[in-house]
């Protein structure tokens, strides 16, 4: 009787094979995270653009209804839509002014529909509190910065381009955000035009 020697290889992976598999998983995870981060940032840009365009439409609609722009105490053409001045503008556009002779939106028309948020870091329309008498605090981009607004106060159909010195935008009202980095330029700015 002959005996056969059978070589038996143990089942499993070698250390090199395991390291290759781990490296592939790490690369795929990194690619997935970067794609996910880009998609989330695009979503934030879209939400901010919708709010900026909504603000411009609300002001244009107010102008069509009352044949003038709202007077909300702005000291210059460019304002940040927060604080006392921005809150006053939002109060007028939302039809939430106190009833009286000094009302600008006498028909109490709600010209704006913004996404609402409980805090500015999430972006959208933020109120001073959650009770029924709350006033708008501001309108924020998805990175927690107030939107900027420029209105054509001299009625020449153009406003200064905030991103290109010396140039103009042929619009009567524009709104914008400096994007995730909070600075002009860099390719992440969000514009209503």
TrEMBL record:
<protein>
    <submittedName>
        <fullName>Type II secretion system GspH family protein</fullName>
    </submittedName>
</protein>
<dbReference type="Pfam" id="PF07963">
    <property type="entry name" value="N_methyl"/>
</dbReference>
<dbReference type="InterPro" id="IPR045584">
    <property type="entry name" value="Pilin-like"/>
</dbReference>
<feature type="transmembrane region" description="Helical">
    <location>
        <begin position="12"/>
        <end position="37"/>
    </location>
</feature>
<keyword id="KW-1133">Transmembrane helix</keyword>
<keyword id="KW-0812">Transmembrane</keyword>
<dbReference type="InterPro" id="IPR012902">
    <property type="entry name" value="N_methyl_site"/>
</dbReference>
<keyword id="KW-0472">Membrane</keyword>
